[in-house]
Amino acid sequence: MSMADRPGNSEDDALRVLVVDDEESMRHFLVRALQRQGCEVTAAVDGPTALEALGSGAFDVMVTDIRMPGMDGRELFAKARESSPGTRAVLMTAYGSIKDAIAALEQGAESYLAKPFETDELVATVMKAGEKARLLSENRVLREQLSGAGSFGGLVGQSSAMRKLYRTIERVARADGTVLITGESGVGKELVARAIHARSGRGDGPFVAAHCGALPQTLVEAELFGVVEGAFTGADRSRPGYVERASSGTLFLDEIAEVPIEVQPSLLRFLESGEVTPVGGEEVLHPGVRVVAASNRDLRLLVEEARFRPDLFYRLDVLPVRVPPLRDRIEDIPLLVAHFMVAVGRPELVVPPDVMAYLQGLPWEGNVRELQNLTERLAGTVEGDVVTLDDLPSEVHGNDAVARAGFRPYRLALEHFEREYLEGLLERTGGNVSEAARLGGMARPSLHARIAALGIDLAGFRGR
What we know:
This protein is an alpha/beta fold. The protein is built from 20 helices and 10 strands. Helix 10 crosses helix 12 (about 310-315) and helix 13 (about 335-345) packs across helix 15. It is about 45% helix and about 10% strand. It is elongated and about 95 Å long. The strands form 2 sheets. A 5-stranded parallel β-sheet has the order 2-1-3-4-5, sandwiched between helices. A 5-stranded parallel β-sheet has the order 7-8-9-6-10. The protein has 4 domains: about 15-145, Response regulator (Rossmann fold, 3-Layer(aba) Sandwich); about 160-325, P-loop containing nucleotide triphosphate hydrolases (Rossmann fold, 3-Layer(aba) Sandwich); about 330-405, Orthogonal Bundle (Helicase, Ruva Protein, domain 3); about 410-460, Arc Repressor Mutant, subunit A.
């Protein structure tokens, strides 16, 4: 058994590579070439030894020959995929076994190297596979975080702003007063209302949502409080209103600012007395309902403009809850994206750091709803397993606040410049990394690392 050849550099960010080949000279070549790039390398002489290594340590990349005595590279890859699914496989093949390599690619291998190959090609392929392994690992971590972050009825986030909101929800749920939830459109006010209901003493009762802006203006009172047969033209039967249907539970009044001013006195009386009389009826009902209202408008301003009754506002604003906009919790965007990818059935679709940074720089005027729409769109249109900046729709590229202002955030501008600069070097040198490093005054390992981090495909520059 030959395990070995671990370099002195064992930093946490070093790429961990397992090389497998029965030829000693090839093993030594692979180990030396990858160690010079700062990789932490382990060598194995055959498939069983490689599987033992995979069982005792985590590797980002496995580089294996296809043609080996006993267990060949394809069989090793199949077993490694079961025991170490996070390890990306690069297969080395002679011309005669390229079909085997292609078959392995179809089964999930990352890439293959056709012998003979140059050191630069080896390094670029392994670095790219390693970057993919890291991205997939980060994606798995996000999903693991997500499994413990959905304890508030669909609300997702671990930022300080969201933790504060969770504490407010817990506190408000223990009380039984009227709640007023405020926040911009798309922040998730109904999810907050449902979370309050679920944690309250009324959690076993009904949760009834009335979207006031969608109710016919002339029938708002009948929709809320119910109507008896014959109360007005068209009332051909008695119907319970939202209030009665929420009996012993929670009534969620969304877009409360849209309730007509002439209906507001009736709503106020209900909030003060807990009693309701259906339109056209005489029977007084006592439904025992808790009201949670929500608005994306400034009710205080509407009060000043005499468009909302001040007494109704104060009756609603007993337990205020403010939901933060997405721009105030951009650190939650990776978790939200992972949540939506899982919801649409594409949990393995990776959003790499450059794309995530771009998303975090957007204004998100539509908040979480807008992010959800974008994520679902990407899930339906991206054919590969990694999202690129080019995959983002044109309106996203054109609508970010910094672009409208005529500049980009520093990190995005720097990355844009670096990508164009490195692609220019590679274009000029036909993809020769050594020559590009010389022209750019860079160390070749550093250049390789940046090429991999930026996802630049060396193959596209060769032969130009």
